[in-house]
Amino acid sequence: MFNIVTTLFRGAAADAEEALIDRNAVALLQQKIRDAETAHLRGKQTLAALIARQRADRRNQAGLETRLGDLENRAGEALDEGREDLAMRAAGAIADLENEHKARCEALDRVGCEITDLRTSLERTERRLVELRQGLIVARSCDKARRVRSALSRSQLGSASAISDAEKLLKRVLQHSDEDRVISDTLDEVERDFSGEAIRDTLEEEGFGPATRVRANDVMARLKAGKGRNAPDHAAGQPGETGVE
């Protein structure tokens, strides 16, 4: 049981770490590039120090070679003059200088190899840093586009929710409006019933009393009589007239 809980905890921690890295990938990439640039700068400083050391050793080596040449010449002159004692002392000094010269040559060779290796490594690192800087530009653009898409998606979700709510409210308002109109129409009918208008309309439809509205039967009768809407109505006539000459 404890192992299961521990495994779940480690899994949740790993998921949280991955999510944190995803959210801050560009910032982490920037910092990693800065760290690499700092280390690269230290490498360049080391290379510069090695090159300065190499140049100084070469100058010392040239001075040593000059001293060797001078001692050999002087020892030769001493031998020519029969001063073997001085020549022997010069030979000892020459031997020491030659050993030093050999050691310096070996040191110069090692420094030269270190400079070559370090320069090759720095050139390779420089190319990789250039690629990383270019990749960072692309990563920033992609991350910005991703954030815009994410914000747009959230906005669209909110907009869709707002539209849905608005449609429901509109439907509700229209439904209430229809109900109000039905109630109003019904109220008008009730008012007509109580005011006597309904029975008056019924009596008028049955032909009792003067007509207050034009009816289809009136129009049909007029059409059958061949009279237009604006034709004089001789049948109606003046009060007291029969309509016949």
List its traits:
single chain, 245 residues, mainly alpha, Helix Hairpins
How would you briefly describe this protein structure?
With 245 residues, this protein is mostly helical. The protein has helices at 2-23, 25-80, 84-195, 197-205, 216-224. α2 packs antiparallel against α3 (84-195).
CATH topology of the domain at 25-164: Helix Hairpins
Q: Tell me the overall shape.
A: rod-shaped
Number of helices: 5
The helix content is: over 70%
CATH class of the domain at 25-164: Mainly Alpha
The percent range for strand residues is under 5%
What value does the Rg take, in angstroms? 57 Å
Number of strands: 0
Q: H/E element string?
A: HHHHH
Distance between the termini: 123 Å
Average pLDDT level: 78
Category from helices, strands and their pairing? mainly alpha
Q: Describe the biggest sheet?
A: none
At CATH level 2, the architecture of the domain at 25-164 is: Orthogonal Bundle
Low-confidence stretches: 231-245
Question: Can you give a write-up of this model?
Answer:
This protein has 245 residues and is mostly helical. The protein has a domain of 140 residues: Helix Hairpins, CATH 1.10.287. It contains five helices and no strands. α2 packs antiparallel against α3.
